[in-house]
Amino acid sequence: MPGDTDNRRQSPDEQAGKGGKNSADSSGQEASYYDVPMLKPPVWQWEIATYFFLGGLASGAYILGRLAERFGGEDYREITRAGTAIAAVAAIPCSPLLIKDLGDPKRFHHMLRVFKPKSPMNLGSWVLTACSALIGLATVREVLDSKQEDLPTEAVRVADGAINISDIVGLPLMLLLGSYTGILLSATATPVWSRNRWLGPLFISSAMSTGAAAISLALEATSEAKSPAKDALQKVETTARVVEGAMLSGYLVSCGELNEPLTKGKFAPHLWGGTVGGGFMLPELLERLPVGGKVRRWIKIIADMSTLLGGLALRWSILFAGHDSANDPEAARQASRPK
Amino acid sequence: MILQQLPVLNELSNAFPPRQTPVPSPGSDTQPLMGFFTDTSVCIGCKACEVACKQWNQLPSDGFNFTGHSYDNTRMLSETTWRHVAFKEKIGGEKSRWLMMSDVCKHCEDAPCQQSCPTGSIIYNEFGDVYVQPDICNGCGYCISACPFGVLGRSPEDGRAHKCTLCYDRQTDGMQPACAKSCPTASIQFGPVEELREKAKQRVETLHAQGNTQAYLYGADSLDGYGRLNSFFLLEDHPNEYNLPEAPPQPLHGQETRYALSLLTGLVLMLLSALFFSKGDNYAR
Ligand code: SF4
To answer: What is the pLDDT, as a whole number, of residue B225?
Structure first.
């Protein structure tokens, strides 16, 4: 009696002596079904791309704010203040965007009816909820801090203590907030995302670079003077950008031919012009320009804005490349060849 | 009472529907796993299954479209098409022929749609079939992208995901699914999956003995690490000819590594940033 594998693997390629792993049929043509898509394209639209960006921004800004306070001391308090404010502003639209994207928005709370970390979207819903609370706490604490004189010292101390304790769980949670979105995409059958290990690291490094850029933008916009905080932020930005560039290259290379919707498709200009040009090259170039004074400040502001747009373009191009990728039956066939 | 009068409260309470009856665990002695064996070697492409499915499940029409693809004007499975008869005209080669296959949700043993579902709407029911609970689904669309067979769709009518239920309602009443009932050639067979697998293997042997050496089973055993399909097929050509993936990826597998790599990247960036922040003190002084 033939074993299980015999039954299954006597595929026609082998019958035709074509050596098994290629997908040509018995008449020598590429096996396909009238170029009808094999997969369904994602239902996710601009809301999700924007959320990916804002969630990352909130995560990066919050993390840098907390690190600055913990390791930097007084000189860096302005980073914490700006970082918290940016995280709060970025986090506010997140849930509404996610809810708007649902097919049945009034059931948004069903996301939290189970705890199911196996599903990145379920885990992400919990993480977003927890992170929103943390960002809220940090914001309250900043407000208390700024009104320190009029408040009982106990209140300020309690808030300080709470925020310090919260770092132990808060920072890992924020890392998750910045990266789970990439893991969510990699846990789909969409060829350009499917099982890719670079997406999570790419998204968290972009979260850090955009977070640093947003804080730097805020500092630059509020004060002209040079400061150690600004200098340190510059180093953070460059580091995050280098890592992000490496992760993006790794991602594109690991996709092989499947990266075509991203590198050559409709959204290629977003990727090359927006992310690579605007997010990496332009800011690095601008920051190296030998100018000083007022001009320097404006150049920095432009560089930071460009970094932010680059981060948005990254999420945008990757999300919408997924639509084209899923609709391409050839990509789906390629992605599902036996390894 | 008040719950029924306030629609918002009603919706909220819907998130936690009361369990009316104890649900037996799937695959127990009393309740075997139930599934489909679709034998494409006897499919005549009559589409009785497509029609029966639409009628029983009250699915709307997909409109009159002419695709120009052989006799297939349905093209693919979707939120309103839970059985789809594929027609592939094979012209040339040794002899021209038709391939016909009634496609359906594979009711994967290790289903990505079930695992990805964030609300817990998609479950394995007591028959071991993958079922979207319509009162829970909030239309996030994750299952649609997670399914490596492109089975699910989101309905613009109610905004929720829909797919083959393996006629859960009929099964609870001891009836077989509408498609299997209506199939005139027994191309669609319904029953306990273990029995179907045995039957299917015998069928392949018979076909081989008759000289149809192309016949093989798709999904009766693990598909290159994908896990078995509780709704599996007998095919006579390369899976891609039927628009099926050869060795579908299980996208939810290996997530742990992906989380670890992401957290590691984040940690490295955090460490470097902390370093930059703590160095600055010297600068200031
Ligand atoms: S074929 Fe798709 S929809 Fe059906 S159980 Fe598998 S993953 Fe879910």
So the answer is: 84
Give the percent of chain A with pLDDT over 70. 91
Q: Is the CB–ligand 1 distance for residue B228 below 6 Å? A: no
Instruction: With beta carbons under 8 A apart, name residues in chain A contacting B140.
Output: 101-103, 111, 121
Nearest to A31 among B121, B240, B259 (CB): B240
Beta carbons of A36 and B93 less than 8 Å apart: no
In this structure, are strands B216-218 and B153-154 parallel, antiparallel, or unpaired? unpaired
Residues B64, B103: one domain?
yes
Q: Is B105 in the pocket of ligand 1 (CB under 6 A)?
A: yes
Nearest Cα residue in chain B from A173: B263
pLDDT category at A5 given cuts 50, 70, 90 is very low
Q: Would residue A61 count as lying in a domain?
A: yes
CATH of residue A247: 1.20.1630.10
Whole-number pLDDT of residue A9: 31
**Does residue B1 lie in a domain region?**
no
The atom of ligand 1 lying closest to the CA of B122 is: 8
What are the beta bridge partners of residue B132?
A: B122
What tens digit of pLDDT does each residue of A54-65 get? 999 999 999 999
Beta bridge partners of B189: B37
pLDDT tens sequence across B243-269: 999 999 999 999 999 999 999 999 999
B161 lines ligand 1 (CB under 6 A): no
**Same-domain check for residues B135 and B183:** yes
Please state, in angstroms and rounded to a whole number, the distance separating the CA atoms of residues B111 and B89: 31
Q: Residues B200, B78: one domain?
A: yes
The ipTM of this complex is 0.90
The answer to whether residue B7 sits within a structural domain is no
Shared domain for B56 and B183, answered yes or no, is: yes
pLDDT of B28: 67
Return the pLDDT at B91.
82
Q: What phi, psi does A288 have (nearest 5°)?
A: -95, 0
Contact call for A236 and B273, based on CB within 8 A: yes
Could A201 and B238 be called an inter-chain contact, meaning their C-beta atoms sit closer than 8 Å?
A: no
B-chain residues near A231 (CB < 8 A): 280, 283
Residue A319 in any domain: the answer is: no
Same domain membership, residue B272 and residue B191: no
Tell me the per-residue pLDDT of B166-188, one tens digit each, with 9 for 90 and over.
999 999 999 999 999 999 999 99
- CATH number of the CATH domain containing B45: 3.30.70.20
The string of DSSP letters for B154-202 reads: E-TTT--EE----SHHHHHTT---HHHHH-TTS-EEEEEHHHHHHHHHH
The residue contributing the CA closest to ligand 1 atom 6 is B108
Average pLDDT in chain A: 90
Full domain range(s) for residue B189: 30-242
Conformational region of residue B23, where left means phi above 0, alpha means psi within -120 to 50, and beta covers everything else: beta
Domain count, chain A: 1
What percentage of chain B carries pLDDT values higher than 70? Answer: 88
Cα gap B260→B271, rounded to integer Å: 16
Are residues B238 and A13, on separate chains, in Cβ contact within 8 Å?
yes
Surface of B (80-109) touching A: CB under 8 A: 86, 88, 90, 92-94
Q: Which residue of B has its CA nearest to A207?
A: B266
- Distance, in Å, from the CA atom of B50 to the CA atom of A321, rounded to the nearest integer, reads 33
Counted domains in chain B: 2
Q: Nearest C-alpha of chain A: how many angstroms from B59?
A: 18
pLDDT at B85: 96
Residues spanned by the domain of A53: 43-309
Asked if B255's CB is within 8 angstroms of A119's CB, the reply is no
The answer to whether position A9 is within a domain reads no
Instruction: Please indicate, yes or no, if residue B76 is contained in any of the structural domains.
Output: yes
Quote the tokens at residue B270. Answer: 């955090």
Q: Work out the minimum CA distance from A150 to partner chain B, whole angstroms.
A: 30
Q: For residue B142, what are the contacts with CB-CB under 8 A and spacing of at least 6?
A: A119, A121, A184, A188, B116, B117, B118
